[in-house]
Write a structure and sequence with these properties.
It comes from Natrarchaeobius chitinivorans. This is RidA family protein. The protein is an alpha+beta fold. It has two helices and six strands; from the N terminus they run βββαβαββ.
């Protein structure tokens, strides 16, 4: 299943980029992972900082992807919700680059919000992946 990641000439290419400007995918099945946070299997929040919560949230995303037969490299779209976008860029972005890999970054949007579902939630991630059957 081909996934093509494109950063077209003429588009801003920010330093330390954690996204691809355009992603095209041809696959048999789409996988939509609901908003994921840094809860453990007992529903307890893991981490008190954006960095800690990002690490656990990415672990949870990977668990969801694996359950559906996908990997981080299959992700074509990422939406990041955070209560502190500036801190996320500093502390969360490095984990995204490590998780997705420099060559397989998804199209991504970072959205700063006033709050998430509970006050202790600092980061929430939604992903879409495409795989062949």
């Amino acid at each position: 299943m081909p996934i093509e990641r494109i950063n077209p000439d003429g588009m801003y290419d920010p330093p330390n980029d954690v996204l691809s400007q355009v992603v095209t995918a041809t696959g048999d099945r789409q996988i939509h992972v609901a908003g994921t946070i840094s809860e453990d299997e007992d529903g307890e929040i893991v981490g008190e900082t954006i960095e800690e919560q990002t690490r656990k949230t990415l672990e949870n995303v990977e668990t969801s992807l694996e359950a559906a037969g996908a990997t981080p490299e299959d992700v074509v779209r990422l939406t990041i919700y955070t209560v502190d976008a500036e801190t996320f860029v500093a502390d969360g972005d490095p984990h995204l680059r490590s998780f997705f890999g420099e060559e397989t970054l998804p199209a991504a949007t970072l959205i700063g919000v006033d709050h998430l579902a509970r006050p202790e939630f600092l980061v929430e991630l939604e992903v879409t992946a495409v795989v062949d059957e």
